[in-house]
Automatic annotation (TrEMBL):
Residues 47-372 form the Acyltransferase domain. This is Acyltransferase 3 domain-containing protein. Keywords: Cell membrane, Membrane, Transmembrane, Transmembrane helix. Its main location: membrane. One of its GO terms (biological process) is enterobacterial common antigen biosynthetic process. Pfam families: Acyl_transf_3 (PF01757). Signal peptide: none annotated. Belongs to the acyltransferase 3 family. The chain crosses the membrane at residues 50-68, 88-105, 125-145, 165-186, 193-214, 226-247, 254-273, 285-301, 317-334, 354-375. The keyword Membrane applies.
Length: 386
């Protein structure tokens, strides 16, 4: 937390001085006073809460997709629509790392690696372990694993635990923590462009790996690749005055056109990688998806029309939705499979598929949010950490 108004002013600094714009006489920047800077920070904090909500919505949408289920048969003529549906579930991940960096940005200089890990352990690692443990035990019960010997139970449990980390939503926490540790260890390099370029080059390497398959291309295992986005989020925070001034200067037609073009490019790249039989064709680290995520982030930062979402208190409950939604999906997956078995295929009805997808997503997201609210306001609130 920021302790004083002076700290806020100190931490919200311009990326460039006014002299940096001498070659651009049409651009005039006026740095706000102390009260204005505080107001700016508060306004962006509210917008970050909107971004939390929308990013989690995208992530849940992606995990709710059943487009590859055995009971779903779609016509090849709908391939582009299918690609659009897949892409909608990939734009939230990068933004969550930018959010992580934004909220870490003005604190990174205060941490050592040990103090950062201690803080993260209390706030997110313990809840993460709670829910991973609950999920693992539930899976062991479902598979009747407790009828096996203790050694076999341990082996199966370890395999399930590892699988849930790398093949469910739970990979985000260790990657986020590692990214934070990287920034803390190199905190003296934070303001150097070269450091950002090194992190970017790592991200671009993993992006190229999607095409060349030098190593496992699954986005959940590309742990160092997300540090760039955490660093970028931190730069947004520490240079908030500058960022806000530039966002205000970009017109809506330009921003929306660029974002639409980025969405089309990301959709086409995902479809192309799928044709190449890339294991993780719609990986979040695709260059086109990263650009799209950034443009969507700027849109949310520019508009005030979505601030009503703050009434849902996403800063309080979205972490719970993250921890819960995978479990919720697994609980109701058998119900969905049964429904798909009873319904006719969607070969000539992409509209019916989209409708069912939307209903399933709305159900999972609303149920997960409701459970998070109930738990957070009960004696079980400790499950979500301090």
């Amino acid at each position: 937390m920021i302790d004083s108004e002076s700290q806020i002013k100190d931490n919200v600094t311009p990326f460039f001085s006014e002299s940096s714009f001498r070659h651009f006489p049409s651009i005039t920047l006026t740095w706000p006073g102390e009260d204005s800077v505080i107001s700016l920070k508060e306004r962006y904090n509210r917008k970050m809460n909107v971004m939390r909500f929308l990013a989690m919505g995208s992530i849940v949408w992606g995990h709710c997709q059943f487009i590859d289920s055995p009971g779903v048969v779609l016509s090849p003529s709908t391939d582009l629509i299918q690609a659009v549906l897949r892409q909608l579930g990939r734009v939230g991940t990068v933004n969550f790392f930018i959010l992580t960096g934004f909220f870490l940005g003005d604190k990174v200089m205060k941490y050592t690696a040990a103090s950062y890990l201690k803080r993260r352990f209390q706030t997110i690692i313990v809840p993460w372990l709670y829910f991973l443990g609950i999920f693992t035990i539930a899976e062991l019960i479902y598979r009747n694993a407790f009828k096996q010997s203790p050694g076999e139970i341990l082996i199966i449990g370890t395999q399930l635990f590892r699988g849930l980390i790398f093949h469910a939503a739970y990979w985000f926490i260790p990657v986020s923590v590692v990214s934070g540790v990287i920034l803390v260890l190199f905190k003296k390099q934070q303001e150097k462009l070269g450091f950002g370029l090194v992190l970017l080059s790592i991200t671009l390497f993993y992006n190229a790996n999607l095409y060349f398959q030098w190593m496992d291309s699954n986005h959940t295992k590309a742990i160092p690749a997300y540090a760039f986005f955490v660093w970028l989020g931190g730069k947004f925070k520490t240079h908030l005055v500058m960022v806000d001034a530039l966002i205000r200067r970009v017109s809506w037609p330009v921003l929306l056109t660029v974002a639409a073009a980025a969405f089309l490019l990301a959709t086409l790249e995902g479809a192309y990688l799928q044709k190449l039989e890339t294991p993780d064709a719609y990986a979040s680290l695709r260059l086109s998806n990263s650009a799209l995520s950034l443009f969507l982030f700027l849109i949310v930062m520019k508009t005030d029309r979505l601030l009503f979402i703050n009434a849902l208190q996403p800063q309080k409950y979205i972490f719970g939705v993250y921890l819960l939604h995978t479990i919720t999906i697994c609980v109701f997956s058998n119900v969905l499979d049964e429904l798909l078995f009873r319904l006719p295929d969607f070969t000539n009805g992409i509209g019916e598929y989209i409708l069912l997808q939307c209903v399933y997503f709305a159900f999972i997201f609303t149920l997960s949010y409701t459970i998070a609210v109930l738990l957070k306001n009960s004696a079980l609130r400790f499950l979500f950490g301090k």
